[in-house]
Structures are given as structure tokens and as C-alpha cells.
């Protein structure tokens, strides 16, 4: 039987006495009323499931919303320190129905909280929400004017007054993951969100029988929209492990799918590789993946070899090759842009890499010299359009490679407080069709046999391990890693190796130090103690700084003399040009990575 609170809400809706309310919130009320005692979400920990029903979620979200209204008003921003737990979900929905704009944030080391501070400052958040223990750690490092609300200690009984909320109001801010120096918060409106959730529900064929099992972080767009908001929108159930639990023990994710009879999950490409490398065949005893209908893969470039090896390893446990489901999306659309048909094997083709480099699409025989395997990411969601555009002429190039542009009701309102970037990114128009606004994704791709293929990126963001990382964040920490390195420019970018996408750093150093390395190499051996120590010091300092700051390993570290990196007329680094020089061996620099290996070999000898 429905509790009184849900009965009252349903009655209000029936009588249409609620104030102006977006469809997303109305859907929340309706599903909580209809599914009542069904499990909405569950947190997995140590073989135990802490669950919350739809009716309990409704009551707790209402309590949270009423409590919030004592501290702030509609439209204010609330930063939520994101931990994998039911408290986050309650807090998020509580903010939403109160008209408070939630801002999911990752939890940094309290001693390195600049990224969190920058996000809070950028959106002018008035409230910070988190578990009481977590909030205590950040009290000394955050603005004292912030109102701290412990999500695990919310009193009940506060009256809640539903505010009038428009479809065009901002539902939440999704900050692009990995940003620290220049955060950009995507303004996802209620209209955008509802439109994208419907697209996801229709394309992924979500029903109330959906059982989602995930470990993705809740502050990530795929973790939030794909793994929390989508199951509730469809009347399904979601279960969650923490990201760290997956990283340490990836088998626990597959065990959870088996135990809970999960029929849908989703991960970035790196997670599949992690499972293949960390789970031995004998450890899979007892796994049953026959019920897994959809395992969608996105958030970073998808490799055919990864999908192939994952399927080969886990098909013995019932995994269907048709379950693997590549898709494409981004936070600027709430989440979802393209995917194929559920239950059909993904599309893969081999293309001539030299032709792709020249922005041409040319098929190649599988395994042929110069052939590269690419994965089709499906076709556009209903009521949306994906086109390929020459970014220079802003004309459509349907047969060639160009920038991917998208239009539809799921395209968000822009970046918070950044009107010029919003205009350039979200209001692009074709020369031949000036009346339609498009989102410029910054990704390069092409359409082949009605499938979207991603071939590269023209924007500077680096995507590794499912994270968006801005080069400036890496470059700043490189420049600050050693007293000799705070001068000169730096360029960070990624390139593809056989093992996947890797990080490359090119750093300008003082000419005197560069000359020392020239002489060091000319002597044909590691016999310069001072220079050898310098190489070791630079490598260790930079590797540690990058690892500590962004959690990445550098594949190759190149040093060049000062003023050798290509720049624009205004002095900005031309990273794409720098990458081309690197790939063509035209940087005229020294690889400290190679030098370090030679030094270590010599020392051991």
C-alpha cells in the first residue's frame, strides 16, 4: 500500500494543483507512486546490499528538499561531494525537486583541493553536501561562508513547498571531468535531461525489468545519467559498487552482475582491458553472464581488439557477443548521442590509416599494411541529427571526415558563466543552413554505412581511462614539478600505440641544460654524472607530479630547447602541430624516457 505522502503527491498531480513542474520531476513522482515498494537502488559492499525502495526514496528526497529550503532558495547551487552511496542519490533528487541546482564533484585529496575550490567558485555554490566525515576533512580548506550539510544526518519533518520550476531551468551542472585550472560546467536543463532520458530509454530498450549494475563514479555523466537517472526513469533498479572496488577487484563487478541477475551495465574501454588483464580464467568459476543483455561501452575511444579479447575471455561464462554495445555521447548532451540496435552485433570495419590522416574515408582489407580497425558507434537518437562538417568552411561533408556536429532537444544550454564559449560551441551554424544551431563536439568522425565512426579529435581535451583531462592541467603540474622547469612552454597530448592511447609530454628547458644533454648524448654513453643526475631528477619529478595530480603515467617525455614549440600569433601552444612534429620525428628534441632507460642499464652493468 502506498504511504500517505505518495498518495498526496499523486492526488495533487491528478488535480493538477502542483505548481509549474517539469516532466522530469513529474516522472519521478509518478514512478515513486507506481513502483512503491520495489527496490529503486542498492549499494553493494562486502556481499551486503543496502537498498532503498521507490517510496522510501520519495520520502527521503522530500525530507531533504524541505530541509534545504531552510538554508537556500530556488536556483542556488549546491556542490555535492560524490561518494558511492544512497546518500548521494537522495541528496541529488532532493536538490532537483527543490529547484536547487546540484553540482556533483569528485572528492580530491584535501591537501590538493584546488580543483574543487575552482568549481565551487566558478558556479558560486552556496552549499556543500557530503557525508559528515568527508565534510570535516574539507572544512579547513574551503570557503568558510559555505553552508555544509551532512547528507547522512538529515532530520525529517521539515515542511516542503514545491517551487515553480520551468522546463528551461537548469536541472544540474555537469563539470567536465578532470578540469582543475579552468572548469566548465555544462548547464543541463530539465528539458534537455528529459529528452535525453527518453532517447536512452527508447534506444537501449529500457523497461521496468531493467537491472543495472555499475561501479562508475556518480560525478561522471555516464555514471550519473546512465546509471542513476536512467534506471529510475524507466522504473528499473540500479545497484552500485565503488570505482575503487572495481579497480582493486574487477571480478566483483562481474560477480555482482551474476548474483543480482543484472541485464545491463556500461563501462569505458579501459575497464574491459582491466578485466582481461586482472581476472584469471579459473577465478571466473561461478560467473553467469547469460542474462547480461547490454554491456555498453563509451566515454573514450573504443578499440576493436579490446571488445574482441573481452568477449573471447568471458564468453565461456555465457557472455553473448551481441551484448557488447558501443555508443557515443558527452556531457554537453546530458549523455547520449548515438548507438546501434540492442541485441545486434556491433559494426567494425578496417580503413586505410593514411587516407584517414588526410581526412578521406577508404576501406582496407583486414590486417593489411596501414589498416586500422574502427568501431561503429551507431546512429543518431530519435528527434536528433548528427552531421559531419568541415570545421574550416562550416559546410557539410557527408562523404568525408570532419567535425561531428549535433542538434536536438538534448543539446544543453551551454557552459555556466561562459557566454562566449557557449556561443562558439553550442550555437554553431552551417553556411548553407543558417537557421539551425548545432553543438560542435570537437571530435572528428565520418559516417559509413549509416554508422558513426570516431577518427580523432580537434579539441585539445585528452581522454584516457574514461576521463576527460585538459592539457593545461598536466602542463601546469609539469612546470611546477622542478625548480629548473618553471620556465619555458610545455605541451601535453595523447597518441595511439598498439596498447591504446598514451600520454606524451614535450617540455622546453633552459638552453644551457639542453646543451648539456646534447654533449651528454654526443659522448655516446652515460659518462656525464651531472647530466645523468639531471635526467633522472627531471624524469622522477615530472612523473611524480603528473601521477599525483592527474593519475596518469607518461609514455614519452621529450625535452626541446626554449622557444622551439610551435605557437599561435598570440603565443598559445599549438598542440596539434606539436603532435604532428612528434609523430613525424621532427621535434629536434631528446627523449628523457629513452635516456633514463640507458642510464639505468649502464648503472646496472
Describe the protein in words.
Helix 1 (4-15) packs across helix 2. This protein has a five-stranded mixed β-sheet with strand order 11-12-13-14-17. A five-stranded antiparallel β-sheet has the order 19-18-20-21-22. The protein has 605 residues and is α/β, with parallel strands linked by helices. It starts with a helix and ends with a helix. InterPro entries: AMP-bd_C_sf, AMP-binding_CS, AMP-dep_synth/lig_dom, ANL_N_sf, FAAL/FAAC. This is Acyl-CoA synthetase (AMP-forming)/AMP-acid ligase II. One of its GO terms (molecular function) is ligase activity.
Which term fits the overall shape?
globular
Helical segment count: 19
The helix-and-strand class reads alpha/beta
Distance between the termini: 78 Å
Q: What's the CATH first level of the largest domain? A: Alpha Beta
Counted beta strands: 28
Proportion of strand residues: 15-25%
Low-confidence stretches: none
Write the layout of secondary structure elements.
Elements: H1 4-15, H2 23-35, E1 39-45, E2 48-53, H3 54-68, E3 77-81, H4 86-98, E4 101-105, H5 114-123, E5 127-130, H6 132-138, E6 147-150, E7 170-175, E8 185-189, H7 190-204, E9 211-214, H8 221-234, E10 237-240, H9 243-248, H10 251-259, E11 264-267, H11 269-278, E12 294-297, H12 304-314, E13 324-329, E14 336-339, E15 348-352, H13 353-357, E16 371-375, E17 379-380, E18 385-390, E19 395-396, E20 402-407, H14 419-426, E21 439-448, E22 451-457, E23 462-464, E24 467-469, H15 471-479, E25 490-497, E26 500-509, H16 511-522, H17 529-550, E27 554-561, H18 575-583, E28 590-591, H19 592-604
Parallel strand pairs: 1-10, 3-4, 3-5, 5-6, 9-10, 11-12, 12-13, 26-27
Antiparallel strand pairs: 1-2, 7-8, 13-14, 14-17, 15-16, 18-19, 18-20, 20-21, 21-22, 23-24, 25-26, 27-28
Helix pairs in contact: 1-2, 2-3, 3-4, 7-8, 11-12, 15-17, 17-19
Amino acid at each position: 500500500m502506498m504511504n500517505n505522502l505518495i498518495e498526496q503527491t499523486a492526488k495533487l498531480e491528478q488535480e493538477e494543483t502542483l505548481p509549474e513542474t517539469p516532466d522530469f520531476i513529474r516522472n519521478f513522482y509518478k514512478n515513486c507512486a507506481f513502483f512503491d515498494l520495489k527496490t529503486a537502488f542498492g549499494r553493494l559492499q562486502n556481499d551486503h546490499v543496502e537498498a532503498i525502495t521507490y517510496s522510501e526514496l520519495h520520502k527521503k528526497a522530500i525530507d531533504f528538499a524541505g530541509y534545504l529550503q531552510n538554508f537556500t532558495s530556488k536556483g542556488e547551487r549546491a556542490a555535492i561531494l560524490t561518494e558511492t552511496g544512497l546518500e548521494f542519490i537522495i541528496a541529488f533528487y532532493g536538490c532537483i525537486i527543490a529547484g536547487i541546482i546540484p553540482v556533483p564533484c569528485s572528492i580530491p585529496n584535501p591537501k590538493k583541493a584546488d580543483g574543487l575550490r575552482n568549481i565551487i567558485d566558478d558556479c558560486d555554490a552556496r552549499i556543500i553536501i557530503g557525508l559528515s566525515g568527508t565534510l570535516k576533512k574539507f572544512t579547513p580548506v574551503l570557503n568558510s561562508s559555505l553552508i555544509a550539510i551532512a547528507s547522512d544526518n538529515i532530520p525529517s519533518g521539515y515542511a516542503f513547498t514545491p517551487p515553480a520550476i520551468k522546463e528551461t531551468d537548469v536541472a544540474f551542472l555537469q563539470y567536465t571531468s578532470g578540469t582543475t585550472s579552468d572548469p566548465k560546467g555544462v548547464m543541463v536543463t530539465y528539458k534537455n535531461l528529459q529528452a535525453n532520458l527518453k532517447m536512452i530509454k527508447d534506444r537501449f530498450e529500457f523497461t521496468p525489468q531493467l537491472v543495472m549494475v555499475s561501479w562508475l563514479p556518480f560525478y561522471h555523466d555516464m555514471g550519473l545519467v546512465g546509471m542513476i537517472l536512467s534506471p529510475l526513469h524507466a522504473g528499473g533498479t540500479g545497484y552500485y559498487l565503488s570505482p575503487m572496488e572495481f579497480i582493486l577487484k574487477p571480478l566483483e563487478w562481474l560477480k555482482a552482475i551474476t548474483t543480482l541477475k543484472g541485464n545491463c551495465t556500461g563501462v569505458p574501454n579501459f575497464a574491459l582491458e582491466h578485466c582481461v588483464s586482472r581476472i584469471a580464467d579459473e577465478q571466473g568459476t561461478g560467473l553467469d553472464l547469460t542474462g547480461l543483455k547490454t554491456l555498453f561501452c563509451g566515454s573514450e575511444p573504443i578499440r576493436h581488439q579490446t571488445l574482441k579479447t573481452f568477449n573471447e575471455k568471458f564468453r565461456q561464462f555465457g557472455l553473448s557477443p551481441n551484448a557488447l554495445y558501443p555508443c557515443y555521447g558527452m556531457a554537453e548532451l546530458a549523455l547520449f548521442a548515438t548507438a546501434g540496435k540492442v541485441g545486434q552485433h556491433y559494426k567494425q570495419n578496417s580503413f586505410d590509416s593514411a587516407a584517414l590522416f588526410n581526412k578521406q574515408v577508404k576501406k582496407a582489407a583486414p590486417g593489411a599494411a596501414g589498416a586500422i580497425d574502427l568501431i561503429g558507434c551507431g546512429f543518431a537518437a530519435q528527434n536528433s541529427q548528427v552531421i559531419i562538417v568541415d570545421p574550416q568552411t562550416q559546410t557539410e561533408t557527408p562523404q568525408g571526415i570532419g567535425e561531428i556536429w549535433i542538434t536536438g532537444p538534448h543539446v544543453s544550454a551551454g557552459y555556466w558563466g561562459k557566454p562566449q564559449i557557449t556561443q562558439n560551441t553550442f550555437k554553431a551554424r552551417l553556411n548553407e543552413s543558417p537557421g539551425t544551431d548545432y553543438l560542435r563536439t570537437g571530435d572528428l568522425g565520418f559516417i559509413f554505412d549509416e554508422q558513426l565512426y570516431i577518427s580523432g579529435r580537434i579539441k585539445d581535451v585528452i581522454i584516457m581511462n574514461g576521463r576527460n583531462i585538459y592539457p593545461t592541467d598536466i602542463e601546469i603540474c609539469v612546470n611546477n614539478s622542478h625548480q629548473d622547469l618553471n620556465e619555458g612552454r610545455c605541451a601535453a597530448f595523447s597518441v595511439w600505440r598498439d596498447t591504446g592511447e598514451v600520454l606524451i609530454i614535450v617540455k622546453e628547458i633552459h638552453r644551457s641544460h639542453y646543451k648539456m644533454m646534447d654533449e651528454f648524448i654526443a659522448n655516446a654513453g652515460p659518462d656525464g654524472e651531472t647530466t645523468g643526475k639531471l635526467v633522472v631528477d627531471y624524469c622522477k619529478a615530472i612523473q611524480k607530479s603528473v601521477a599525483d595530480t592527474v593519475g596518469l603515467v607518461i609514455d614519452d617525455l621529450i625535452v626541446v630547447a626554449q622557444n622551439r614549440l610551435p605557437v599561435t600569433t598570440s603565443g598559445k601552444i599549438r598542440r596539434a602541430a606539436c603532435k604532428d612534429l612528434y609523430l613525424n620525428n621532427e621535434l629536434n628534441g631528446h627523449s628523457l624516457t629513452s635516456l633514463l632507460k640507458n642510464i639505468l642499464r649502464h648503472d646496472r652493468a
